[in-house]
Amino acid sequence: MDDFIAARSQMALSLGFHIIFSCIGMVMPFFMAVSHYKWLKTNNEVYKNLTKAWSKGVAIFFATGAVSGTMLSFELGLLWPKFMDHAGPIFGMPFSLEGTAFFIEAIALGFFLYGWNKLNKWFHWFTGMVVGVSGLASGILVVAANAWMNSPAGFDFVNGQYLNIDPIQAMFNKAWFSQALHMCLAAFTATGFAVAGVHALMILRNRNAYFHLKAFKIAAVFACIAALLQPLSGDISAKDVAIRQPAKLAAMEALYKTEKPAPLLIGGIVNEKDKTVKGAIEIPGALSFLAHGDFKAEVKGLDQIPENEHPPVAITHYAFQIMVGIGTLLLLVAITYFFILFKKKPLTEKRWLLKLFVAAIPLGYIALEAGWVVTEVGRQPWIIYGIMRTKDAVTPMPGIAYSFYIFSVIYISLSIIVTFLLYRQIKMVPVLYNNPESNK
Amino acid sequence: MKDVVIIFLCMAILLYFLLGGADFGAGIIELFTSTKNRSKTRKTMYQAIGPVWEANHMWLIIAIVILFVGFPHIYTTMSVYLHIPLAIMLIGIIARGTAFVFRHYDAVKDDMQWFYNRIFRYSSFVTALFLGIIAGSLISGHIDTQATDFYTAYISGWLNWFSVAVGLFTVALCGFLAAIYLIGETKEAHDKRRFIKKAEFMNVAAVVFGAMVFIAAQRDKIPLIEWVFKSNVGLLAIISASLSLVLLWYLLIKGKTKVLRILAGFQVTMILLAISYAHFPNFIRLKSGNAISLLETAGPEKTIYSLGLALLLGSVLILPFLGYLFYKFQKKEE
Q: A186: alpha, beta or left, given left = phi > 0 and alpha = psi -120 to 50?
């Protein structure tokens, strides 16, 4: 394996792994806080058990997310030293704030997990909230750093020199808001649907249905609200990308030729050699509308971008299709759910709806990973858009392929163990929380 | 502001050595505990470090963020030439962190525990060893940025007598710190005695490996003796570390736990000071005879300024909260 490809694969693997764990670690505390609040308000034992059960999941995910995040802060240098040499001082601001947020999160988690019966109950609840809020802040800050790679700001690039560095301006680059919003909603959607789906499965199997129904409701509401909002945020992102990174937008839609008006392609097989797309459904003018808010606007195609600055079109296009497709599906599920909730029909009777949620368990994460692929692969061949190429940033050390193999084994085994642990946690719910209250 | 940032960096590294080190030490102690006492050791250890271990590891993140934001040249030089030991240390951090949490949160306590325990113990040892090796390599002057072959560039920079001796010395220090910490965390007299024994054992090991560090330095032509004995601060630090050793043994026999902790922390701090003071602000000594200095390679002024501000702001938020965490979970139902 080529060292450059190995380095990119290792980075993609590490981020792909970390993103799932950190999203869960970011979102679950909010579910916990709601359940915890209900326990404090209603004194219903089931909410206390639920909070405890979820907090164990959070502990597992947080630790895994924390170590994989530590890994990443080193990996940036281990794999991309030339990038960090220049970029560190410019886009480091969000990282230094993220360090603070993450630290607070770790402290608050210590309080929360070990604070049962030791702390004032409202202070205890508050520490749980702090875990969630600081986790969310960490997420936003890290995404702001990534946004800088898409939309470099806060310096002047003169003759290969990075001058007049302003880290604050770099942090508030043009892409930070749209990317952070999209990421946060994606985290809530993906985690919400996954958690709701697991509990829906348990209700369908009639195991501690009362317990799981309470859990399901909390997670599902978060998931569905986020899924409803996500298309709006997607629209903001699309319009933003169209202006800032026309090459990425063109690759997302496999738009080889500049068109006015430009059609929206759904699906289709991309042929990168002939620069054609076969078998796609075309909606005339729709891409013009999505990108510029006008059905007749011109959309820049790849023909206006130098060949050596083209991102891989097929991967970006497919990933984008997957993301949007799943997003639409989850939107429909969310609408259905709210419709049924509005009609006040008991959920346990709507087994088809629960089955729908079960089917959606992995979907959110697949969409999330696909979206990540769109933004990262769509930026290639740049590591700092328009400034530094990814291949110029890679470490001079040979043999990265071996490092990639080793870390692949580690990440895969960790995923297996975490899945296994969660399976056991869920299996043990009847044993651990089996009191008459929770089994009504 | 540059000074503020450098102080924070030194503090973060020191605290990581002390707190993270005690945390690695807990695994190392478990490694050197006879099978029949292991489950008890584990229990004490879990109660002691469970609530704080995540926070202890944040110091590493703080240190690394300060490096890559404020001193990118140091960060990238380390990343390139110490790639292999850094990667091994990271694998250790991943393995022990996850094993520690998994073994507690596995809802079914069965044979998997055996597996988690093994991983936790060995990876604690490996992480501390490589942390020491990396620290040793930075000052060893073996890192060769002009090397053309793989071995000189990526291996000999860290795989040398001095670095490995520092690594072993670090392992002993970590074990020592953990043992001292655990003495205060147990109430049973029998367990107390056990941890005191461990502390004594680790202390002797540290002295032995410490001597080895000096021998290896002689062998690798590193002017360690000069650094330590020719500068007033170095000399003062090493003398106070040695004197406090006597006091420490006395207190150890008496079983005074609170003062012991402070003293052990003080000793390790003095050792770090003695080794690093003489070549401060140089952070990495290179084979060419040059060095990469914190003062000379600091990032642009605006970056350092905002980094310093972020750190100050962060510590206002973090320190009281962190202090309360330690306070709350140390005060047992006495």
A: alpha
What residues in A contact B311, CB-CB < 8 Å? 96
Mark yes or no for CB contact B94/A432 under 8 Å.
no
What is the model's pTM? 0.86
d(CA A318, CA B212): 59
Nearest CA-CA distance, residue B277 and chain A, Å: 26
Q: Using CA atoms, how far apart are residues B305 and A205, in angstroms rounded to an integer?
A: 58
pLDDT value, residue B108: 75
Q: Which letter does DSSP use for residue B109 in this model?
A: -
Low-confidence spans in chain A with pLDDT less than 70:
432-440
**Does A59 reach chain B within 8 Å, measured CB to CB?**
yes
User: ipTM of the predicted structure?
Assistant: 0.84
Residues of B with CB below 8 A from A103's CB? 55, 58, 61-62, 314, 318, 322
Kindly report each contact of residues B325-330 with a partner whose C-beta sits within 8 Å and lies 24 or more positions away, as own/partner: B325/A107, B325/A110, B325/A111, B325/B51, B325/B52, B325/B55, B326/B52, B328/A111, B328/A115, B328/A118, B328/A119, B329/A110, B329/A114, B329/B51, B329/B52
Separation of alpha carbons B188 and A415, rounded Å: 39
**Rounded Cα–Cα distance for residues A384 and A85 (Å):** 13
Contact state of A73 with B94 under an 8 Å Cβ cutoff: no
Please report, as a single letter, which amino acid is at residue B205.
Answer: A
Residue B2 distance to chain A (closest CA, Å): 13
pLDDT at residue number A432 = 67
Residue in chain A nearest B66 by alpha carbon: A96
Distances (CA, A) of A358 to A53, A274, A355, B31: 20, 41, 5, 44
Q: What is the pLDDT of residue B333?
A: 42
| CB within 8 Å: A89 and B299 | yes
Measure A161 CA to nearest chain B CA, in Å: 13
